[in-house]
Amino acid sequence: MSTPARGSITHVIFDMDGLLLDTEKFYTEVQEIILARFNKTFDWSLKAKMMGRKAIEAARIFVDESGISDSLSAEDFLVEREAMLQELFPTSELMPGASRLIKHLHAKNIPICIATGTHTRHFDLKTQRHKELFSLMHHVVRGDDPEVKQGKPAPDGFLAAARRFKDGPVDPHKVLVFEDAPSGVLAAKNAGMNVVMVPDPRLDISHQDVADQIMTSLLDFKPEEWGLPPFEDSN
Predict the structure, then answer these.
(1) Quick one: pLDDT at residue 234?
(2) In terms of DSSP H, where are the helices of the chain?
(3) Is 206 exposed, middle or buried (0-12, 13-18, 19+ CB in 10 A)?
(4) Contact 98, 218 (CB under 8 A)
């Protein structure tokens, strides 16, 4: 995994779900409940295919791959899932190291933003306990943004994010993306950007060979390895 662009990073783009916010567990919990009705189980190979994608795309994968499409349409699945998620999203907690990294980059005047597949109504619910932290972002590109024609692994979201920085578009080779989902890593690479992957430990290792760097937590990130200002508390 060669990273010729290390040392020349000027801008950072964050995914949100499962990377900054511990929300992926909510999707897992709700989808397990729905599949249990059909005497089926939800496993991580299916989750890996759904992660990071637009809701309707993920829903089609869910009903098709689990073999319930004759009984439950993708659209009806989303309606049923929505009611349960609405109650869970406002309890979203930050992932380890997320606050530290965002505040550090902001304090050092490194332009940062979010590119997420999440639609606006869900974004607002998920971030309502963390508005101060998320206000440090230069901008946010959501899944229902008109410029995002296709969800991840298409590069639309990341390219739109790079265009909206001050003096954008930013050279993709100078952008570092943080992602947890295989589809998101592919989207960033399809945009020509560098990617640090922070995968869930349950994710099959075969999904991790595309990323430029892999770590178990944002706490492990060393900004200086990418030419970014080091943490003040680093030894």
Answers:
(1) 52
(2) 24-36, 44-50, 55-65, 74-88, 98-107, 120-127, 131-134, 156-163, 182-190
(3) exposed
(4) yes
CB 197 within 8 A of CB 216: no
Q: How many CB atoms lie within 10 A of CB 180?
A: 23
Residues acting as catalytic residues: 15, 17
Residue range 87-113, pLDDT digits in tens: 999 999 999 999 999 999 999 999 999
Q: Distance between CA 26 and CA 152 in Å, rounded?
A: 20
Confidence of residue 235 (pLDDT cuts 50, 70, 90): very low
CB 31 within 8 Å of CB 199: no
Tokens of 49: 């295919």
Residue 2 structure tokens: 């060669």
Question: The whole model's pTM is what?
Answer: 0.91
CA 219 distance to own-chain centroid: 17
Alpha helices in 11-97 (DSSP H): 24-36, 44-50, 55-65, 74-88
Say yes or no to pLDDT of 12 above 70: yes
Residue 97 — left, alpha, or beta (φ > 0 → left; ψ -120 to 50 → alpha)? left
Q: What is the mean pLDDT of residues 32-59?
A: 93
Length of the chain measured in residues: 235
Of 36, 43, 42, 193, the closest CA to residue 113 belongs to 193
